[in-house]
Amino acid sequence: VVSSSIQLTPNRVYVASPTFEITSSNNVIFGLNYSLSGSMNIQLPLISDVGNMQCTFKDEHGNAAINNIHLLSSGSDLIDGEVSQSLGRDYISISLYNNSTNKWFIH
Fold first, then answer.
1. pLDDT confidence tier of residue 4, bands split at 50, 70 and 90
2. Residue 103: beta bridge partners?
3. What strand order describes the sheet that includes 40-43?
């Protein structure tokens, strides 16, 4: 039995700019396509503003080894104990979820 409150198919958001700030979205895949032109900075929302959230980031153009993609935390939030995480491998993807307080976890 599957609960109707579970969203099995995530939404995809296309990101093609050098900087992008995420607002409240849950179960979203962010298709990152700017890495062909230069590095990219993705600002995560403040966890206390969005509550429970999970999201996935994917280098869709396969150029992150040359033009890194940087995930940046907000405020005092941390991503696996760090203020940022860099994606530096072509076609890499990373998924995050949070504890609703101040920590993002990579899974």
1. very low
2. 78
3. 19-21, 40-43, 69-72, 84-87
